[in-house]
Design a protein that fits this description.
The protein is an alpha+beta fold and 129 residues long. It is built from 3 helices and 7 strands, in the order H-E-E-E-H-E-E-E-E-H.
Length: 129
């Protein structure tokens, strides 16, 4: 076996954690939904967690969603943002269908967003009944 063959059969090294350089976010923003983490992406800003959650609920259009916390995000103009929540709409097989966006919640994480989503889902279910 030659050296090239041996190297190609070795497992790929783990991808190291790195900083994602995201869009610019003003210092006074507490709740935002970003369409991507690319520099220059324009955030939709919300005054409250409930307003952001309502927007996410409308965008999901009845589909199940998946929430994943992403750490080590660096934004322009701010050093305090270190994590966002990636939100995917899922298809009937629970596979990712479309990206809804990346939620930024000032000083709050995934658990706060999940609680708000659950509260609204229950409210809509009561209205429909």
């Amino acid at each position: 076996m030659n050296r090239q063959t041996v190297q190609s059969t070795l497992p790929a090294p783990a991808i190291p954690a790195h900083i994602i350089r995201g869009p610019a976010v003003s210092r006074d923003i507490r709740f935002a939904l970003l369409p991507s983490l690319a520099p220059g992406a324009r955030a939709t800003v919300f005054a409250t967690l409930e307003a952001m959650e309502s927007s996410i609920h409308r965008r999901r259009d009845g589909q199940a969603i998946e929430l994943s916390e992403i750490e080590d995000v660096e934004t322009t103009h701010r050093s305090d943002i270190s994590r966002v929540i990636e939100i995917w709409a899922l298809d009937v097989g629970n596979d990712r269908d479309r990206l809804i966006g990346f939620a930024y919640l000032a000083e709050k994480g995934r658990a706060a967003l999940e609680a708000a989503l659950h509260k609204t889902r229950n409210a809509y279910a009561q209205v429909a009944a």
